[in-house]
Specification:
The structure is a single chain. It contains 5 helices and no strands. The chain is mainly α. The protein has a single domain (22-100), classed as Saposin-like (NK-Lysin, Orthogonal Bundle), CATH 1.10.225.10. It is globular. The model is unreliable at 4-13 and 15-22 (pLDDT under 50).
Length: 103
């Protein structure tokens, strides 16, 4: 039994080292670019206004697919801070999504 557990552990560690870490999906890239386009230039530096603008645009783009509308909301809550920080630091809008590893 110890041998089997040891082999499973070795396979898990080897797999983690050999396979590259998971990259963002094309949908994450789409959402990031949509967020950058609606965020640049920032609206009154108020995050909730920018998030509302993004959500409206995202829902318009993904109209009729309810679970994707929820995905827009989740994305806005989890990924807006890094996007805003990149834009404020002077990163060009077309480079933001690559900088935060979304594309």
């Amino acid at each position: 039994m110890k041998t089997v557990l040891f082999l499973v552990a070795v396979v898990a560690v080897t797999t983690a080292l050999v396979f590259p870490e998971q990259r963002a999906s094309a949908f994450d890239c789409f959402l990031c670019r949509l967020a950058v386009n609606t965020t640049d230039p920032p609206v009154d530096n108020e995050l909730h206004i920018v998030e509302d603008k993004f959500l409206a645009e995202c829902k318009k783009e993904l109209k009729g697919i309810p679970f994707l509308e929820q995905t827009c909301l989740n994305y806005a809550h989890s990924e807006f801070d890094p996007i805003i920080k990149e834009l404020e630091s002077g990163t060009a809008p077309e480079d933001v999504c690559r900088a935060i590893e979304q594309c």
